[in-house]
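Z., the sequence and structure:
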Amino acid sequence: MTLRPARAGVLHVQRGAVWATRRGPHAANAGAAGGDDVLRAGQRLRLHAGDVLVLEPIAVPGTPAQRVALHWQPAADTRWATEVARPASELQRALRDAVRAGGQLLRGTAAWAGHRLGPCRDARCLHDA
């Protein structure tokens, strides 16, 4: 089987084992992005959009032969995150800050008005009135 994902995601081996070959340089080249891997049940492999991965079921020594079950989990939509989720989070923070500032303004106005309307014992206060 050959996989060519249109978008990034994670391949999860749920049952069995596969020999996975990525197109590109192989593991013999240090730091290479390609190569061969054996993936067993429970292991995951991240793939980028456009990667080419060839999978072949294999029998793993010491385990009974079984059919392979795979699950593909596409990566979260980064466009949604950048165009909707992040601005919504920023708006939430801004509204919270606006409510806090509004409360401070009301408290400050009340304190100022209370001072202005309170008893005047200072000569400057009598003069300003």
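The chain has two helices and seven strands. The longest strand covers residues 9-15.

Let me know what you think.
H.
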